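INPUT
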Amino acid sequence: MTIQAQANGPVTPVMMAGLAGLVVSLAIAFSNLMADGHAAFNTGSDGVIWGLPVVNYVFFALASTGLTLVASVAMTFGSQAWYPLAKRCVWLSLVTLVAGFASLALELGHPFRMLWAIPLNFQPTSPLNWMGLFYAVFLVLGILKFVRIHVGDWNSPASKQIGLAALVTELLAGGMLGMAFGAMAMRPMWYGTLVPLYFVLTAACTGGAFALLVTYLAYGKDAAMPDKVRSLIRGPLPMAFAALLGLTILVIGYRTLIGLWSNADGLQVWDHIVASPWFWLEAALLVGAFYLLLEKKALAAAALMVIAAFFIDRYFFVVGGQLAPLFKGAWVPELIPYSPSMTEWMLTLLAFSIVFFGWALGEKMLKLEAAPQGD
Amino acid sequence: MAKWGMVIDLEKCTGCQACSTACQMENNRLPGENYQDVLYYTEGKQPTPQLKWFPRPCMQCEEPSCMHVCPTRATYKTEDGVVLIDWNKCIGCKYCMIACPYGVRFYTDEKPLVEPNVKAVFNGDRKLSWNPPYKGPQQDAAKGIGIQPDGVVSKCTFCYHKISKAPKGTPDLDPANPELVEYVPACVRTCAPGARYFGDLDNPNSQVNRLISDKQGTRLLDHTGNKPQVYYLTGAGAAGSAVPGTRAAKA
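OUTPUT
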């Protein structure tokens, strides 16, 4: 195993910020949840059922899938140039998944009951179950893979097989998360056979963005990076990322146009989405990041822009699918009003804090800059 | 074994909401969270406006999407065709509420739908959604009957605590029959214009089957494939025609 130049970026400040975020978010979220239960959320039986905590889960679970995809470029598909990012991505894929699970657990009515009720009463027709199973299996495989590469076993047949299995389960999990929404024919904004593909494609974008961002956070600036990291960051990574992002922008654009064009009941929510300044911010961030990646300029900013844009995208996807009431009525609004409560935002802060604190902890203690010997 | 079903005659229904009130009382529901309601619509403009209404209980589907998505099988279908929730298994993920095309499921633990918040007055101490002064005679968590506990989803049970005790082989639970009236669901029993009928859909001689056959009973949102066991008599085609789409022209 070769240890490249030690991380010398703002790891400690990020760690402290993450820790502060953890303390603040947990304190506020728990005190509100203890006092009011889930009435501390702005979700409701006659309104938005899955609110911001589910947005957080979808965002971070898919980021985990994306990070595994980025790690697999070197570890499964053999592209040597991508090795300098691999260990960092494996670690972060675990951390992001934990962040997603944390937000989801605090959203569930009975998170502990889930631990026995699902295994004992497994419903095979529920996409949620398969998604949970695949992510749980990935968590185990991901930890195994990380331990292997941490002790320097990058390329043994067993290590490669674990890596391949981890990649397959992550893809199945991300796809199944897409199916959890895409199978809902009664909610036209979500319904579609290609939703799993959309989720995996956008997962890859968020994975790439997190990989790029933490690399910059680890080293601070290009000049501080080891040669191999720099040549990846200045070479194939932004080009591959730009190609992926360009394709994703096309898909999001067509999805929006189809939503606006169709008169199907439920799709009127697209008029609302397009009228929102957040939609245009998402568009500007994505196009801006695409330009920066093509020009290979301000890559850390481009990564941040992609992360912000996809958080907005996940919000529009999860919440937007529920805004059109199922039935019209004299007391039913044309679109259901929803804005997340302070407690819900605290779960977003909690998830981001787990990610950045977890990453910084790994950076300090787990030699995330390591790459295979001779590469 | 019977397959219980309901027929609602929209030409008789007056939209009086007695069914909703009876449901609320029978099942100890919180205000605004009764298992069944009546939707009202104002369509058209003066001088030809239309006031429409549409009673909406749980459809007790033959192919319930809520059951298929439930990760813990907490939502299940009984042998006599009723969709119930086992509150002991429900983890409160709310996927069933997402998957129900009819919007007839309720999560406990949220802001009150109707103010003032009676949960604060009759506090359930975080175990039950509330602790009303009057309680129904039954509490059966495995069937989702009684006062809803904390952190779970609930729904209409077709008053399972009543219908499950009906004599076997009964083709119809007719509220006009003194021997059967105690087994009739509260909404059917209380319906003043007699717009609701309840009986065995598997019995070709039941009144519900005769009504469905003679008056061309139809089901709501039949295209979803959920196959409701609640039929509507509209007098004029599909049940869907009685329900304006959310994108229908504004009043």
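end of record. Chain A touches chain B through 48 residues (CB under 8 Å).
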